[in-house]
């Protein structure tokens, strides 16, 4: 990236790292550019992780922890009414609330306004899971889980913070690049950082959870202020 003010070529990694701190910068753009950098660095582990995050995980994939949880709500299909909250006991609710969300960031971003409006992201169940839950809750109808907005925010914030921490580690190791080219030494340093990806993601999940909680708090505060104005 050319910085017209300085007349120099800005490191793409530095640009990505900086934009991770901008909540208005699209996460999908950060992921796509990070995939490019990882590919040029021949960092297969990082590029594979990011491609899965962007496009979604396959049914046979082991999903990372930031895509799992136990806070989903069960919905049941009612003819004439559509999807409604399933009439189940608290004990049943605790049993069926576990979820794995494979949906890619591209799709989550595209549907984010609907996710906010609906309070979550609908997560279809495969036939085996459908049959298992139907037998448990004794409902003979189509079922699906809704992953709450907070969990979606945690997922997206974890990926954002993961890219931030990965790009930051590259910069600290002296991996800047010249445009989109990297030296053999830089590629070697990047390879060592890739070996710590699991640790980086663990840290990113913790900071992502804090960021997601802060987002939820800000939205709750805004809603409260709007209601105060309406009722004043």
Automatic annotation (TrEMBL):
Upper classification of the organism: Bacteria, Pseudomonadati, Pseudomonadota, Gammaproteobacteria, Chromatiales
AbiTii domain span: 12-193
Protein name: AbiTii domain-containing protein
Pfam families per record: AbiTii
